[in-house]
Design goal:
Blueprint (H helix, E strand, L loop, with lengths): L3 E9 L2 H6 L12 E5 L25 E9 L31 H5 L2 H16 L5 H21 L5 H27 L3 H19 L13 H17 L6 H18 L12 H22 L11
Antiparallel strand pairs: 1-3, 2-3
Helix pairs in contact: 3-4, 3-9, 4-5, 4-9, 5-6, 5-9, 6-7, 7-8, 8-9
Length: 304
Amino acid sequence: MDTACRRTVQPVSGNARAAVHQPGRHADSRPGRVLRPINGSLANGHSPRRPSPSPGTNGSSSRVAGFIECRYPSRPALHHRPMTNAPLDLYCERTSPAFWAEPVNALTNLSFILAAIALWHLARQQPRRPGADGTFLIANVAAIGLGSFLFHTYADRWTMLADVLPIFVYQLVFLACYARRVVGLGAAVTAALVGLFVLLALGFARLPGAWLNGSLAYGAAFVSLAAIGVWHHRRAERERATVLLAFALFLVSVSFRSLDLSLCADGALGTHFLWHLLNGAVLYLTTRAYLLNRRAPPTASPRA
């Protein structure tokens, strides 16, 4: 998610053109570097539009093509680069720095807003009030949609923080609330689980960002959601399959997120918008499972 791209115009000739047409290779073979033509296609396996040869050259001269140079540094990248308002170009749909350069990616964030509205309606129908924990999770789902909308419109490092921070906060709060109010774990064990999640997230964050288009940053969420899904299926009081369904949708959504740039042919929107649509459903299901199964606050002697 924190890929840095800059647009360049450079001659493409000889070996560079050959590399463009060979799937799995780039014109620049250095690790972690991808060249995207400005028209939106990938140099990796897709042919960019090139101007016609200049008169009198018989097509033998070097040709000039515009590219976006994308670098995928090792994570966590935010610790190594200053925060600026320079535009970022990370997704297939974006081909300019304009506000509405990613209309589909931006507008599909409505899925999170709709999920939050549906969750609030569900919470108000329950005999027990949602409380501060349930209300916070619902508001957090809406914040994820707003932050992602800002990132897919303004697309700079500040709005990238508005995108990723609510997601990470939701993961931590949901894990803590679920462990405490559904599983019934004590405060110390819950804190240990949250700490383990943070360590796991940091470990995945240090993997190269180019792997799976940065989707490995969600590795800790993937592992924890699978574990919660299994426990919920065996022990929950209501809707036992809900979290496993959320896990299955999350698996599909991560796949679409990972494929966005690799399927970026001329005129294609990419697949990132499907990540938004499916994750709206994922967060609805996980929060729903929590709201329907949360217990009263633990007593002075909680089960560890």
